[in-house]
Sequence to fold (420 residues):
Amino acid sequence: MQVRVTFYSYFKELTGCGETTETISAAADLGALHEQLMARFPKLATMRRSTLLAVGVDYQTRDYVLKEGDEVSLFPPVQGG
Amino acid sequence: MQVRVTFYSYFKELTGCGETTETISAAADLGALHEQLMARFPKLATMRRSTLLAVGVDYQTRDYVLKEGDEVSLFPPVQGG
Amino acid sequence: MKRELILTSEPINEASLIARRTMSGGMGAVVNFLGVVRGSEDGKTISAIKYEAFDKMVRHQFHLLFDEMEKRWPIESVRLVHRVGVVKVNEPSLWVEIVAPHRGEAFAACQWLIDGMKRIVPIWKKPVA
Amino acid sequence: MKRELILTSEPINEASLIARRTMSGGMGAVVNFLGVVRGSEDGKTISAIKYEAFDKMVRHQFHLLFDEMEKRWPIESVRLVHRVGVVKVNEPSLWVEIVAPHRGEAFAACQWLIDGMKRIVPIWKKPVA
Fold:
């Protein structure tokens, strides 16, 4: 199964890309996807604990089970204002 | 000794006047003046506990000793805004 | 701390007050409060409120509050306009502005100033039917 | 509760936002907050901040905050404007307005909304030297 992943803010610099497509096993959860992404982009691992994870326009926790077509976003703590 | 007394807000209605001059004994304090005014204007006594007392532009407590030329003000709780 | 205090019987002109705002490079927060006369007072419909002020004491007491604000928070500017006389329903009677480095102190100071005003500044309201 | 949310790369025009304000007779309090880009960030002098927003999620998350505000306080109107892109030092990046019956709820809601924004709304800052 494939999911599209978008990085925001300096996560784009950490990964060197704004968007990527990641192949995951069926019924993988968001935590597993995060691990896979940190393996592929080691600099992401430096932000492991403060990474925010969203699917579509909602935050999700690591145990969220991914579905075909999910649009995942990874980003650092937000800083509006 | 004479002091000038000004009433504000509905204290003017309670006393029927905006300003008066009161004769007090030398070294009378603000509390004594207040008692004297309540005797003269009995409706003022209904507001005894919530009356605010000022001399010039500063609040004073009942033990403030009055001096010749003091301008005393009596008024109900303030309500700006 | 810059201070501006206006007691006026004229309508409050927010736009012109805002146009006159100045703030230096270190300032990150502006809080404005507008108090507006509501259509009812103690459950009765009213058309206006008449504000009476003991003018000289109002000025003095506001400056005591400003002195205290200046000690408590790093505020660059406070401006306050209070109407006196008749203020119709839906018209503003009070405008306050605080300019400070950060929002926390701007909000805290603005609320503290209004609370202080309601405690010690000799202004009174009389509903107009 | 009326809601207006604007994400814009244009300068925030306070005067025109204020001119467009509407409020009903029961409303007694307006709180406005203006967040302005400061001349230094983490101790370094900067000339601007570049704001990046995950637009669609920003809108959704703000509306979640508005939903919650509406449950907590009797607010008539919330309006919020946030700049995206480059915002120069001394220019506002954020404008918020709350209209409510009384000042307590207007101040509480305004601060709660800004705190909520800084917790969950996906906007990021990048200082420009």
